[in-house]
Write a structure and sequence with these properties.
The protein is of the alpha+beta class. Among the domains are: 137 residues, Arc Repressor Mutant, subunit A (Orthogonal Bundle), CATH 1.10.10.2910; 145 residues, Beta-Lactamase, CATH 3.30.450. The chain contains 18 helices and 11 strands. α9 crosses α14 and α12 crosses α14.
Length: 475
């Protein structure tokens, strides 16, 4: 029988200590010398198949405990160190393998601590949302990553920046475009004429992992051919905005009071993105077109030659004093539920709408790619919203690559249903709306088939004689 060498010293020591045996006692039972067992426990000698069988026979040890534990721990540790708080701490997996092999108890402890940290972070977030709903501000969230700090600013503030709107509208007017002129051609011409910058699209093989790159030496802006024509236009518009009215962008950035250089860099990107949308869809003409089209996103995307996502973003920005549109809000997630973006004309309505209910159509949209899903949803307090959801396609994937698909929800108060083309798709008034909540941990609706977690505000009702529709019955 061919021998397969396995180095599992720390696990052998763990078994021995668990049985309360000395090295001498275990060595005698295994019919080897204590010194040889000592070398095995220090991973200086392998466990042969014969020794594995002996351990299984004498101590009733599960062989999987000796051969499979490290691999499991390595996978869990890899997930932990992929967390943004820890990413970059380790150059590779070798140290994780060493921790899992040499100190399995310590590895298990790290896994338990991380799970507890995630659970407590989730509970603090839920509690903060609950307090916010009742009008109490809280700083329970503690230290945040730069991206979380920027998202918090975007989600809480109205998605309207007057200085950027004015600058974008003035710049667009200066271009002197006539009906039918191509904005992308005009912006590229401005970059070349004013700054000597040439825009080029590069193939995937040349720029496999970047969407854009600006080469200061050759004065060329490279865009990936993976991007749609609409996304390429936005990248060009962002570059124009940063060069043409960077001072206004800087002023808006200063008003956000971000605390780190990385957060400011991310905030500058988001403001440039806002400015690009304002340049691509000038305020007055876009608002007028939106009102005439009854906010039909597909009509607007064709009229301004932009994407569904770009129009949805722009609709949340129409809050100029004296010339307001419908106060929309929006959110974008992937099919795992990860949040990419939340914004609103008055800030994202976190306390009132939440956006974390599994019954929202944004989750069902992934099963119906490209289709519009229109719903009338109602919160526990009786407030209602009209929501429109649709999937979005990411950069062009090559053969063998998985398509990046997200879903976007745009919504407004149900009182605006008559002003929207989508209001006609809703059931007749009097038909019960879809009952949703802000999030499972903050929702007290009884008998909800979609409930994923128990409410934070109610004690669990555990009764062996009665089982409810949800796995999390509560009193």
């Amino acid at each position: 029988m061919a021998e397969r060498k396995i180095f599992a010293g720390p696990r052998v020591r763990r078994i021995r200590n668990g049985l309360g045996l000395t090295q001498t006692a275990m060595a005698e039972a295994l019919e080897i010398s204590p010194s040889y067992l000592n070398l095995i426990e220090r991973n200086q000698r392998p466990l042969t198949v014969q020794l594995l069988l002996k351990l299984a026979s004498v101590y009733k040890v599960d062989l999987d405990e000796l051969q499979g534990e490290a691999g499991s721990n390595v996978g869990q540790l890899r997930e932990i160190f992929a967390d943004p708080l820890l990413s970059g701490e380790l150059p590779g997996d070798q140290e994780l393998i060493e921790v899992a092999e040499v100190a399995p108890n310590a590895a298990n402890g790290i896994v338990k601590l991380y799970r507890a940290y995630r659970e407590q972070a989730g509970r603090l977030s839920d509690l903060a949302e609950l307090l916010a709903r009742e009008g109490h501000e809280t700083s329970l969230s503690g230290a945040r990553l730069p991206i979380d700090e920027v998202r918090d600013q975007i989600e809480k503030r109205p998605n309207f920046h007057a200085r950027l709107e004015d600058a974008a509208e003035a710049f667009h007017a200066d271009l002197g475009l006539s009906a039918g002129d191509d904005l992308g051609v005009a912006l590229k011409g401005w970059l070349r004429a004013t700054h000597g910058i040439v825009v080029r699209a590069l193939p995937v093989q040349t720029m496999p992992s970047l969407r854009r790159r600006y080469d200061r030496h050759s004065m060329r802006l490279f865009l990936s051919e993976r991007l749609s024509t609409f996304d390429q236009l936005r990248e060009v518009a962002m570059e124009v905005c940063l060069l043409s009215f960077g001072d206004q962008i800087q002023s808006e950035l200063d008003s956000m009071a971000l605390t780190s250089s990385e957060a400011r860099r991310l905030g500058r990107f988001e403001l440039a993105r806002y400015a690009a949308h304002a340049l691509m869809m000038p305020y007055v003409s876009f608002l007028s077109s939106a009102q005439r089209a009854r906010y039909d996103i597909d009509v607007l995307r064709a009229r301004f030659n932009v994407s569904f996502e770009q129009v949805a973003n722009r609709l949340t920005m129409l809050q100029r004093p004296g010339a307001q549109g419908i106060p929309f809000f929006m959110m974008e997630i992937d099919n795992a539920g990860n949040r990419f973006r939340r914004a609103g004309s008055h800030g994202f309505p976190q306390a009132k709408f939440g956006g974390g209910c599994p019954k929202l159509s944004i989750h069902a949209a992934f099963a119906l790619p490209g289709q519009l899903l229109v719903d009338h949803v109602e919160m526990p307090d009786g407030s209602g919203f009209l929501t429109v959801s649709r999937t979005l396609e990411g950069p062009q994937a090559g053969f063998g690559e998985r398509v990046r698909r997200t879903a976007l929800l745009i919504g407004c108060d149900i009182s605006h249903r008559s002003e929207l083309i989508y209001g006609a798709a809703l059931p007749q008034e009097g038909t019960p709306p879809i009952a949703i909540g802000t999030a499972c941990r903050l929702c007290e609706r009884p008998g909800c088939l979609a409930r994923a977690e128990p409410p934070l505000t109610r004690p669990l009702g555990l009764d062996e004689m009665v089982t409810g529709l949800s796995a999390f019955d509560f009193q």
